[in-house]
Design brief:
Low-confidence stretches of chain A: none
Structural class of chain A: alpha/beta
Largest sheet of chain A: 7 strands, parallel
Shape of chain A: elongated
Helix content of chain A: 25-40%
Oligomer: homodimer
Mean pLDDT of chain A: 94
Radius of gyration of chain A: 20 Å
Chain lengths: ~240, ~240
């Protein structure tokens, strides 16, 4: 069943304009038809259309269910966006498909891209959520200053930064990560972090890690490291490895 | 250092036309300059330009080295290409970056795309190889009939097919895969495999597996499952889990 997105459906009982248009004009659904509406907060509603309108379709809620989270740990991915925005949009789509709790775009000293269109990002996140049959959107911060991000309180999360230099011990993410724990992964810009930024990250408890022995593009490193963590969490759970 | 690709550099001592153009016209390198040339078979050559020509640059080989493979197991990914070819090109780039031994495009009953431009694919593979600092290209088969592929002899490889239906036990790739072994992963078309195709796969020793509890696009499933295997192999090696 096609999913529709309406963040306040339980209060408004109305689909937003874009989803109303898709529902009534594109899919030609009409009064009495049953649709599924998600609110991006983990709730999924079975609804009956009471007024099929191409701009504000009204519905009644028949039933609702709460989505069970399908991955382990709270996972935050913070990445300095690439100059080529397509690569970031691709990353967002894939990250939502495989599972992510929070996405942050970082403004670093050597960032080639210092701004981002938040509405465009939200559109991609919503589309990936619907397509992968989810009811939750990841938290999304927009552009955040790198040093400000570092100073956040991440509680008991393990904090990793993708960086390799002879100044710091060469650690492997897959060796350092403790299965089941929350994690923050930081991926730098194409021109890499500055020495000051790395020092600040290490001072704030981030571990410099690499992801195997190959050179990865920014968006590949982000998706690869996120998948590493999902893999280890699933593997250790399936095999009951403590 | 920029890498150049010349599959028979040790015999011809000449860069092909495209790389000659890139070297001499774009990068303005000239006689006496030192360049690195890879042959796509795992060999990397340090060369000195003896005749800078925009179509057939001549070189002398100063030294050569053989690339150490940076991942575990021989990994084959066979995927039915999506209608949107960009998604496949993206997959190829990422698969080469993270490590893959062989890529096969499958022609299935319900394939939306039945052909593919082999030269275009090779170009993407070469570009990803250079960009990720490798000297090896994966084997690439072009389009292969699904049932023909199934009948190949894969030796001691574990064989997996991404498929989920109540007719077959629901197995998890991360539970079934034995770390360190060679693996073949098969990913179907957007319209899924036909019942006959699945029966034929199972008869040929393929295990039907899923990759966690989320719905993934074709190209995401391919990259995710490949990364699952890399992750488990690295994790068990780093932690000495047998």
């Amino acid at each position: 069943m096609i999913r529709f997105y309406a963040p306040d459906i339980d209060k408004t009982l109305t689909l937003p304009e874009s989803d109303s248009g898709h529902c009534c004009r594109v899919l030609r659904m009409t009064t009495g038809d049953i649709i599924e509406v998600v609110d991006g907060k983990g709730n999924s509603f079975q609804c009956r259309i009471t007024d099929a309108h191409h701009k504000h379709t009204k519905v009644d809620i028949i039933s609702n269910s709460v989505e069970a989270k399908h991955w382990i740990g709270r996972l935050t991915l913070a990445v300095a966006p690439t100059k080529n925005i397509d690569r970031m949009e691709w990353l967002l789509e894939k990250a939502v498909e495989i599972g992510i709790d929070r996405i942050v775009f970082l403004k670093c000293e050597r960032s080639e891209r210092k701004d981002i269109k938040n509405e465009r990002i939200l559109k991609i996140l919503v589309s990936a959520m619907k397509q992968s049959m989810k009811a939750s959107l990841p938290e999304f911060d927009g552009m955040v200053d790198f040093n400000k991000f570092l100073s956040e309180d991440f509680g008991t999360s393990q904090k990793f930064i993708g960086y390799c230099s002879s100044e710091y011990p060469k650690l492997q993410l897959l060796k350092e990560y403790n299965p089941g724990t929350d994690a923050v992964i930081v991926i730098g810009p194409e021109g890499d972090f500055s020495p000051n930024e790395i020092k600040n990250a290490v001072d704030n408890g981030f571990k410099c890690v690499t992801f195997g022995n190959t050179r990865l593009r920014t968006e590949t490193a982000a998706l690869y490291s996120l998948t590493n963590i999902h893999s280890i969490n699933e593997y250790t759970e399936l095999h009951k490895i403590k």
